[in-house]
C-alpha cells in the first residue's frame, strides 16, 4: 500500500516539475522576445545601399530615413521594397540584415540608354520602354534618340507604347549599345514600325526590318562601315533571305 502511495506521490511531483519547466521555458521565451523587440541595440542605425549607377544614394537614403531607429526585426521589408520601386529607375530590390542594427539593400537599376524629344523637353527611356525621367537638357549624357513614337500624353513610369515588341527591340538594341566599337554609336533608332526598324550609325541609314537576327544585321553593317565600303547612304537588310541592298551617297 505504501509503495503505491509513494509511486503516486512521485508521479505527481514529476508532473508538477514538468509543468514548472514548461512554464519556465514559456516565460524565458517571452522574455527573449520582449528583449529583442525592446532592446535599443536592435534598433536600425545604418542602411547601406549597393548597386547604384544613375540614382544618387542620398535621394534613396532620404526616402528611407524614417526607418532609422525602428526595430530591425519588425521592419516591413515589403513596404521598403515597394517604396523604392516607386522610382522607375529601380528594377529589383533585395534586402538582407547585417549584424544587429544594420541592413544591406542591393539594387538592380533599369538600363537607361534612350531619349525621346517632346515639346522641347527630353523624356528618358529605359531598356523596357518605360519613361524614367523628363529633363530639359541631355548634353551631359550619352543617349540614343528614339523616333517614330508619340509620347505627348505619356507620363513618368508609363510605357512609351502598348506594342509588346517595342520593349524587346529596345532591350536587344541596349545589348548592342553596350558592345559598340569605340567611337561608334547609334545616333537614332526609328521604331514607328517594329517590323520595319530603321537605325542610324553616323551618316549611314540601316534598314534592319524586324528584330530577327538583329545582332548579325548590325555586325554586317558595322563591317561595311569599318571597311570603308560605305560612309554615307543606306544599307537595306529588311527582307529576310535576300542579300543586303546598299546605296552609297556622295
Lateral arrangement of strands in the main beta sheet = 6-5-4-7-8-9-10-11-12
Which residues form runs of ≥5 with pLDDT under 50?
none
Structural class: alpha/beta
Helix-strand sequence: HEHHEEEEEEHEEEHEE
Query: How many separate domains?
Result: 3
Name the average pLDDT. Answer: 85
CATH class type of the largest domain: Alpha Beta
Strand-residue proportion? 25-35%
Domain POTRA: 42-110
GO biological process, one term: cell division
Organism: Clostridium sartagoforme
Transmembrane segments: 21-39
Give an overview of the whole structure.
- By secondary structure, the chain is α/β, with parallel strands linked by helices.
- The chain has three domains: 1-37; 40-109, Ubiquitin-like (UB roll) (Roll), CATH 3.10.20.310; 112-248, Rossmann fold (3-Layer(aba) Sandwich).
- The chain has helices at 2-38, 57-64, 77-84, 165-178, 214-226, and strands spanning 46-50, 90-98, 102-109, 112-118, 121-126, 131-135, 144-147, 186-190, 197-201, 203-209, 232-236, 245-248.
- The strands form two sheets. A nine-stranded mixed beta sheet has the order 6-5-4-7-8-9-10-11-12. It has a three-stranded mixed beta sheet with strand order 1-3-2, with helices on one face.
- The chain is elongated and about 110 Å long.
Amino acid at each position: 500500500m505504501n509503495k503505491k502511495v509513494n509511486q503516486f506521490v512521485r508521479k505527481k511531483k514529476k508532473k508538477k516539475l514538468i509543468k514548472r519547466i514548461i512554464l519556465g521555458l514559456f516565460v524565458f521565451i517571452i522574455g527573449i522576445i520582449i528583449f529583442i523587440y525592446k532592446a535599443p541595440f536592435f534598433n536600425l542605425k545604418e542602411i547601406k545601399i549597393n548597386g547604384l549607377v544613375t540614382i544618387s544614394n542620398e535621394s534613396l537614403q532620404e526616402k528611407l530615413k524614417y526607418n532609422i531607429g525602428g526595430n530591425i526585426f519588425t521592419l516591413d521589408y515589403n513596404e521598403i521594397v515597394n517604396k523604392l520601386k516607386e522610382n522607375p529607375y529601380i528594377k529589383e530590390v533585395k534586402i538582407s540584415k547585417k549584424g544587429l542594427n544594420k541592413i544591406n539593400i542591393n539594387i538592380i537599376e533599369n538600363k537607361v540608354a534612350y531619349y525621346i524629344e517632346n515639346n522641347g523637353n527630353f523624356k528618358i527611356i529605359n531598356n523596357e520602354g518605360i519613361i524614367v525621367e523628363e529633363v530639359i537638357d541631355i548634353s551631359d549624357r550619352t543617349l540614343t534618340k528614339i523616333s517614330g513614337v508619340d509620347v505627348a500624353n505619356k507620363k513618368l513610369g508609363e510605357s512609351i507604347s502598348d506594342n509588346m515588341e517595342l520593349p524587346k527591340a529596345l532591350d536587344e538594341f541596349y545589348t548592342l549599345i553596350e558592345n559598340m566599337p569605340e567611337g561608334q554609336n547609334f545616333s537614332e533608332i526609328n521604331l514607328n514600325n517594329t517590323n520595319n526598324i530603321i537605325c542610324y550609325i553616323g551618316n549611314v541609314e540601316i534598314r534592319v526590318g524586324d528584330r530577327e537576327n538583329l545582332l548579325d544585321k548590325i555586325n554586317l553593317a558595322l563591317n561595311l562601315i569599318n571597311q570603308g565600303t560605305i560612309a554615307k547612304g543606306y544599307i537595306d537588310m529588311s527582307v529576310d533571305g535576300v542579300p543586303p541592298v546598299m546605296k552609297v551617297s556622295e
